[in-house]
Write a structure and sequence with these properties.
With 124 residues, this protein is an all-alpha fold. It has one domain (7-123). Helix content is 75%, strand content 0%. It contains 7 helices and no strands. The chain has helices at 7-23, 25-29, 40-59, 64-77, 79-88, 94-103, 107-123. Helix 3 packs antiparallel against helix 4, helix 4 runs antiparallel to helix 7 (107-123) and helix 5 runs antiparallel to helix 6. The longest helix has 20 residues, at 40-59. The radius of gyration is 15 Å and the shape is globular. The two termini are 20 Å apart.
């Protein structure tokens, strides 16, 4: 069984998110803050490409430390999209609202996980 701090699990999560951005971009377009220039689809695809690059970097031992630290920063950087999703959820069903609000604190363990992967890569 893989460790919870497994770099390959983190890489898989990032790769899965990247694929989701490419396959179902509309759901991600909806949470892109409108204050960003260039339109939401551009940011949806850009974040998917970033996730794919981070996934590859975390998977490879030589680039793992820097890539995992970059993934932690990425998780912080996309937090405004989660805030927007929670704010927009006030017009949705109670179940959707609960999921959107519940998603907010999940960024913290993602950031901590990526930082731990980075630290462990530097210790090896």
């Amino acid at each position: 069984m893989p460790r919870v701090s497994s770099p390959l699990l983190l890489s898989g999560l990032l790769a899965g998110a990247a694929v989701a951005h490419a396959v179902a971009p509309r759901q991600f377009d909806a949470i892109v803050p409108r204050s960003l220039p260039g339109g939401p689809r551009r940011w949806t695809y850009a974040s998917g490409v970033a996730e794919l690059a981070l996934a590859a970097g975390v998977a490879h031992p030589r680039t793992r430390k820097a890539s995992a630290l970059a993934a932690a920063a990425f998780f912080v950087g996309v937090f405004p999209a989660n805030v927007k999703m929670a704010a927009d959820a006030r017009h949705r069903s109670p179940a959707f609202r609960a999921a959107a609000i519940g998603r907010l604190p999940l960024q913290v363990p993602l950031v901590l996980w990526a930082r731990k992967v980075s630290r462990e890569a530097g210790a090896g």
